[in-house]
Amino acid sequence: MTTPLFQTSFLADTLDMTCSNDPVSVTTSAGVTIKRWERGVIEVLPSSARATDKHVLVSAGVHGNETAPLEMMDHWVNDIVAGKLNVGCHCLFIIAHPQAINRHTRFIETNLNRLFDAHHDAATLESTIAQRLKHYTDTFFLNTPRESRWHFDLHCSIRDSKHVSFAVSPRSRHETRHADLMRFLSVAHIEALILSNAPSSTYSWYSAEHHAAQALTIELGKVNRLGENNLARFEAFMNAMGDVIAGQDNESTRSPASPVVYRVTRTLMRLSEDFNFLFQDDVPNFTSFVHGEVFGHDGEKPLMAQNEHEAIVFPNPKVAIGQRAALMVCKVTVRYERGQIICD
């Protein structure tokens, strides 16, 4: 490369607000083209394109305090630049919200991962970011084969979880739950998969709904500060992502177990100021309740389990009124029809 791409690294340059991050394009000795479009946006093209290549969007930092995926992404991009990681697909890497990352906060004004639907939201820093991310997503997937589009939006959970890693498959009008996704999750040792039952406003939903992408929100451990994450816990996931980037079939050193599959039974929305859960903040995701057990209230309305062993995920009583306060899920078995995951 005749022009240096980074002063320090992809992540460090993105978070250094004094660093210009002007557009630049370089070619590695392996013939891989790397384009920086702006702060936090890197496109990678293989030396020679094939009709079978995937077009893989990897995003992280949609919530600024979820840092493990940022360190993983920095590792992949830096290895690509150094020629240590082969590139066999078309990739777009996005660090979504540098301002929130620098403040180690979930967001600045409003939750960015609730701004990808068609509603006209009030003008905020996050609404501006959401529009920019939509633009890059639209451009990246433009004129690509529908079956080649993949999107991994990487997150961490606010609280502990009975499944250290898990994924959420957004509900869309397209066939976006291919068996290849289940194979990837198995090889990556992702412990659980949640099948959403309704449209949402998340980034992964946008890619699935508007581009028919095989899209997942993937939760990798718990929030932590940069430099304090134990990435060794997610070695299988990092290796599986390396295989995807290299355009290789996912391989595993041992026969991987399939994720436990859950279906969303309902979404709990906060409707009043007087909203709270009866359990402690350290209760982990996927904690289950017996049928009829009351676990909170929304005003005078009790919140109770409507199914036996119904479990709660992403409980957050402090969300704004009208936003999601939790998902309720139940375990299901799945089968495959035309290569798509179907609940029994």
The percentage helix is: 10-25%
Describe the global form.
globular
Architecture per CATH nomenclature, i.e. the level-2 architecture of the largest domain: 3-Layer(aba) Sandwich
Structural class: alpha/beta
- Please indicate the count of domains: 2
The number of strands is: 18
> What is the H/E order?
HEEEEHEHHEEHEHEHEEEEEEEEE
Characteristics of this structure?
344 residues; alpha/beta; Aminopeptidase; OB fold (Dihydrolipoamide Acetyltransferase, E2P); 2 domains; 13-stranded mixed beta sheet; three-stranded antiparallel beta sheet; 18 strands
Can you characterise this structure?
- The mean pLDDT is 93.
- 21% of the residues lie in helices and 29% in strands.
- It is α/β, with parallel strands linked by helices.
- The chain has seven helices and 18 strands.
- Helix 4 packs parallel to helix 6 (203-211).
- The protein has a 13-stranded mixed β-sheet with strand order 1-2-3-5-4-6-9-7-8-10-16-15-12, sandwiched between helices. Strands 11-13-14 form a three-stranded antiparallel β-sheet, with no helix packed on it. A two-stranded antiparallel ribbon has the order 17-18.
- The protein starts with 9 loop residues before the first helix and ends with a strand.
- The longest helix is centred in the middle third of the chain and has 17 residues, at 125-141.
- Strand 2 (33-38) and strand 3 (41-45) form a beta hairpin.
- The protein folds into two domains: 10-246, Aminopeptidase (3-Layer(aba) Sandwich); 265-343, OB fold (Dihydrolipoamide Acetyltransferase, E2P) (Beta Barrel), CATH 2.40.50.
